[in-house]
Please model this.
Amino acid sequence: MAQKPSIPKGTRDFSPAEMVRRNYIFDTIKGVFQLYGFMPIETPAMENLDTLLGKYGEEGDKLLFKILNSGDFLSKADNALLNAGDSIKVTNQISEKGLRYDLTVPFARFVVQHQNEITFPFKRYQIQPVWRADRPQKGRYREFFQCDVDVVGSDSLLNEVELIQIVDEVYRQLNIGVVIKLNNRKVLAGIAEIIGEADRIVDITVAIDKLEKIGVDKVNAELSERGLSAAAIERLQPILALSGNNTEKLAALSALLKSSEVGTKGVEELLTVLRITDGLNLSTQVELDLTLARGLNYYTGAIFEVKALDVEIGSITGGGRYDDLTGIFGMKGVSGVGISFGADRIFDVMNQLELYPVDVTAATQLLFVNFGDTEVAHCLKLVSNLRQKGIRTEIYPDPAKMKKQMAYADKKGIGFVAMVGEDEMSKGLITLKNMQTGEQTTLNLEGVVNALKA
RNA sequence: GUGGUUGUAGCUCAGUUGGUUAGAGCGUCGGAUUGUGGUUCCGAAGGUCGCCGGUUCGAGACCGGUCUUUCACCCCA
Model:
């Protein structure tokens, strides 16, 4: 063996057995999306860098995969910058395209670009890979699939509720136990406002997002490190200490945020969403979580995150409302809300918990043994006939030894083998072997169909 | 981007304080069985020990770099 070929860090190959399982996940998600009236779109893997840059924060920009310009790209670069080793500025000169980082921003670009062809509210879903130049880690890949559903052009909170229903339905079908965490950016803005640090909302949210993980003391320490005043941190404490069920938390929050207009609006939104979902008999628990703040900073209203209950793997679905994403591309006043299912993490969860139904295989049902040219010519007709009846049928391509052909069927998990040699040909029959029981019977075509359909 | 971890046959892994020709199980291929798989038996193929450099009479083992794996941090699906 010379050098072993390999694939880039953080990417994966998927075998047939894995693809069958992944497709089960994609098909389930797609099915639910369609049930709620969403239509598919696709966008290119690469976007112009100016579409992507500046939408995900400073960190996000760093994690973008950039594509080198074609041709003699160095000739257009500034030698002074090259010699100075200024990677960032040189990058701008030699790269103008990048791989998409998520599906939401390309979607916003799509909406603006096609606004005259779109009927609003526009409900679309999109299942495609995205790329992030992150360091791989548990449940973290550099290439992974997102399954996005978004509604743009409607302010109604009914959309938020429908997204929660979709989450509930998808995970009910996949049989994954989850909790839906809900928060609202306006509430977070309100909190920042009443503690007198309205412009530090990002620092505040990033820190309190870690509450559950590192505890209140370390959160306070981090807030202090991020430059928040001791007085502000002091005023934040009642909020960090909030407890009880959703209703109790919201009541307390409502009082705390009374003086903040935006905060009060956020509380109202949460109340509305929770009131409606309460009446829907969902099997998934919806939990108000004020520490839920991570995620893209273009969110302006609801924020969602879904965590698996039985596997430690970070969030498997996330999303929220963004009031002005299209504004960045020159189309004001269009609000959108959406969520994204992380297919690769869902795949990991399903694998760990072995949650696939037994019949999730698209394996061949019937293999015809190849006995030679004459027999093949005869069998091909039978094969076509069976395929037309919807039976997944193949014929072994080479006149190999029986043993080899049988072993092939065995390893591929093919349930039945058909043998048609001279004898069967002359009688117009088929010898059918059940690979599980070893039982063998000679039937006509109709008999084979019945045996396979049973 | 920062810090730790990993790398030996297709896969999972042994390999002693540095010492001749690097092993096992599983898998693959062939045969026992030229119209019968799973079990059994026999046999074979398959390695630049991740890569590059260094120390040494001698390196799979030690040192440095690099890539890869994996985990944490930042951040995030």
Notes: Residues 16-35 of chain A form the longest helix (20 residues).
